[in-house]
Amino acid sequence: MSKIFISHSSATNAAALAVAKWLSEAGWSEYFLDITPSRGLAPGERWQEALTSAADRCEAVLFLISPAWQASRWCLAEFLLAKQLGKTIFGVLVEATPLDALPKEMTAEWQLCDLVTGTARQSFRVSQEPIVPETEISFAEDGLTRLRIGLQRAGLDPASFPWPPPSDPNRAPYRGLKALEQEDAAIFFGREAAIVHGLDALRGGQVDRIVGASDEEQAEQGRVDDVAHN
Known about the structure:
By secondary structure, this protein is α/β, with parallel strands linked by helices. It has 2 domains: about 5-155, 3-Layer(aba) Sandwich (Rossmann fold), CATH 3.40.50; about 160-230, no CATH class. It has helices at about 15-25, 45-55, 65-70, 75-85, 105-110, 140-155, 190-205, 215-230, and strands at about 5, 30, 60-65, 90-95, 115, 120-130, 130-140. The strands form 2 sheets. The chain has a 5-stranded parallel β-sheet, with helices on both faces.
């Protein structure tokens, strides 16, 4: 499941590929970018439905802001959908864009990350046939550092969980009927969709109780959300 959704205008395909390359190099390999063969749309998919479904499953959305993004109705729709779903939102400037032209909800509620301004640069050479010829893109290193910190603070740290945990070197990887705890994060798999929906609801202040078929099921879902997010 893709944790990070990259929203961009087709006019900035090269910049989107560069951001995706930076994410992979920094350890965030679970992302959705519509133009990449392995992580984007497959031939024959209905693109609007696929993009909406991907945005629904992800935890965070990177909006690559440019004049073309600002002018795109579809990009605005993606932003409003992400806001409605309670996603963690990152506004990332990849081209100089007047801030007063952006949706007020974006500039009022979220701190933007500027990859344009700065003399210290990090360059990426990208290509994606047939839509993006070989192109060199550079971003401000200070902006990339701020973006990395923001992703980590949002609970999207790419560092893998150690196994066995240092606090319990003899911990069994097969828990049987025992509940999963934070120490078991490295061996936790499954329930991704339920976790994402639960986190979205928590961020949006829409949860005041967990409902399940039994008390144990309710407690287990609470543990799962906690294990997955820590």
